[in-house]
Design a protein that fits this description.
Blueprint (H helix, E strand, L loop, with lengths): L1 H18 L4 H44 L14 H56 L6 H33 L7 E3 L1 H18 L3 E6 L6 E3 L1 H18 L5 E8 L3 E8 L33 H11 L4 E5 L5 E8 L2 H4 L1
Parallel strand pairs: 2-4
Antiparallel strand pairs: 1-3, 4-5, 5-7, 6-7
């Protein structure tokens, strides 16, 4: 395009000069100047186009590499023009996609681990139930006392299976965003009292002290009481599993401005600092043995996180080995109450 433009200009000026009867000397001088202008224009055009062309080729190579699976490819941004903006946009897109795929791989790994844990926790009670039922049917166990003991054990295992299935169903609802909250004005104090009453027998059996306190000025909040009760049950159950005898578990609810803050503190074994970022992941356990005694399939805290976030709240944990743990979650107040 540069050559064509310069040649057309040269022909136009030359023809115009010929019509104006300029002297041959002037025509040669003018032709030389136009030829020099032609060379300069071609040089400048090639220089500019080479820069743009090289940048586009680098971008094209990066796109091909990215298409081949190299998510870490980056394009050097050497200019501030439109091509530079395109390269910066590509780098930003590449980084976001890399983060997205990395998160997807992590979720897939978590899903596989959860399926392994759930499969283990399904097989264990089923095998136990099968063995006890076969013993009764085959006449291996015939005395009435042992049969009753086997039946009680079978009932317990069935209840465990039912709880695990309910946990999986609730997690599926949370994943799909289909968890329905039945919001009503409720007293956090009543929920904590009900939790203490339900868990006190188990705490006494484990020689643990279970207590609770609520600020006097704490107003009722709009929540789904059944779901929040589930949060408290899961947190207390988790604390009961990991607190040695003669320990204490306390629940405290306080007013925190525009939200209600509920803290559950125990004097248990604590959680290593490196494990804290993963504690709410599904089927994650600090104890990798995956024994049933270490806390089922490890879905309880994941359900707690989902329910709290569904209410628009937050949850976090503070802990250390041998220092106990403190789980704190918040519940937003209604606008009128907050005001």
């Amino acid at each position: 395009m540069a050559v064509l433009t310069a040649v057309l200009a040269l022909l136009n000026v030359g023809f115009t000069a010929f019509l104006m009867f300029l002297s041959p000397h002037d025509l040669v001088l003018l032709g030389g100047l136009l030829a020099f202008a032609l060379g300069m224009s071609v040089f400048v055009a090639l220089s500019v186009s080479r820069t743009v062309s090289d940048s586009i080729h680098e971008l094209l190579d990066a796109v091909r590499s990215f298409n081949a699976g190299n998510m870490e490819v980056k394009v050097p941004v050497a200019t501030g023009d439109e091509v530079g903006e395109l390269a910066a946009a590509f780098n930003d897109m590449s980084q976001r996609l890399e983060e997205s795929f990395s998160k997807e791989r992590e979720l897939e790994q978590n899903r596989r681990e959860m399926m392994q844990a759930v499969s283990h926790d399904l097989r264990t009670p089923l095998a136990s139930i099968q063995a006890m039922v076969e013993s009764i049917n085959d006449g291996v166990v015939s005395d009435e006392q042992t049969v009753k003991r086997y039946m009680r054990s079978t009932q317990t295992e069935v209840e465990n299976l039912n709880q695990l299935i309910n946990d999986l169903f609730e997690l599926a609802q949370l994943d799909a965003g289909l968890l329905e909250l039945r919001i009503e004005t409720s007293s956090v104090q009543d929920l904590i009292s009900d939790t203490l009453e339900s868990m006190s027998a188990q705490a006494r059996a484990q020689k643990l002290t279970l207590s609770g306190s609520v600020d006097d000025e704490l107003s009722p909040v709009d929540i789904d009481p059944q779901r929040v009760q589930r949060v408290l049950y899961n947190l207390v159950q988790n604390a009961l599993h990991h607190t040695p005898p003669d320990g204490t578990i306390s629940i405290q609810a306080r007013d925190a401005g525009e939200e209600v803050q509920v803290e559950l503190r125990d004097t248990g074994e604590g959680i290593p600092e490196g494990e804290l970022p993963h504690i709410f992941q599904r089927s994650y356990r600090v104890d990798p043995s995956r024994a049933r005694g270490s806390g089922g399939a490890g879905l309880g805290l994941s359900i707690v996180l989902g329910i709290v976030e569904a209410h628009g709240g937050r949850i976090w944990v503070e802990s250390g080995l041998g220092k106990g743990s403190s789980f704190t979650f918040t519940l937003p107040k209604t606008p009128a109450t907050a005001a």
